[in-house]
Write a structure and sequence with these properties.
This protein is mainly alpha-helical and about 170 residues long. Helix content is about 70%, strand content about 0%. It contains 6 helices and 2 strands, in the order H-H-H-H-E-E-H-H. Strands 1-2 form a two-stranded antiparallel ribbon.
Length: about 170
């Protein structure tokens, strides 16, 4: 007798994006998480490193890897053409979140500024520095990343200059 019912009762598998993958689609959430994590990490690294130059360099390198990794995780979900507004927006939101985190760290006397702790009077200068360095570094990184992606696509022959696939270019 043939089987009229499937052996397994679950016929459909629901493919749902993991939580971090879903998070990576949101420019607001990714930038806020990045800003808070980087500022707290910076405060911790500067407090623990002291005058050890090698540890300072290593901690700043790790910070940049985290920053650019988070930017790449977010931008990798979208086409390069959409990066034109996503990269600067990510940078501005990240800098704002980092500035507010800095304000919170100043309030609890944990924001390092040189060999002392920052005060509320130091916050405008800290904000200016954060916005200058973060926005310029993220936008520059996005430009370099977009250039590398376009060069890789041209080298691999995936696209022509007008954006159509190679198979379409030969047919049309």
């Amino acid at each position: 007798m043939p089987g009229f019912f499937p052996v397994k009762t679950v016929a459909f598998k629901l493919d749902e994006a993991r939580a971090f993958r879903r998070l990576s689609f949101s420019v607001l959430e990714m930038a806020v998480v990045t800003g808070v994590v980087l500022r707290v990490y910076r405060a911790l690294a500067l407090s623990l490193a002291g005058a050890n130059a090698a540890l300072l360099v290593a901690s700043f390198a790790v910070g940049f890897v985290v920053l650019f990794g988070m930017v790449t995780l977010h931008l990798g979900n979208f086409t390069v053409r959409r990066w034109v507004w996503r990269a600067p927006l990510f940078a501005a939101i990240e800098a704002a979140a980092e500035s507010l985190t800095s304000l919170g760290l100043i309030a609890i006397h944990r924001e390092p500024l040189g060999s002392t702790r920052a005060a509320f009077a130091d916050w405008p200068g800290i904000v200016a520095s954060i916005f200058t360095w973060r926005i310029s570094s993220i936008v520059l990184f996005a430009l370099v990343l977009a250039g590398v992606i376009q060069l890789a696509r041209m080298a691999l022959g995936d696209e022509t200059s007008d954006g159509r696939e190679m198979g379409d270019a030969r047919q049309g």
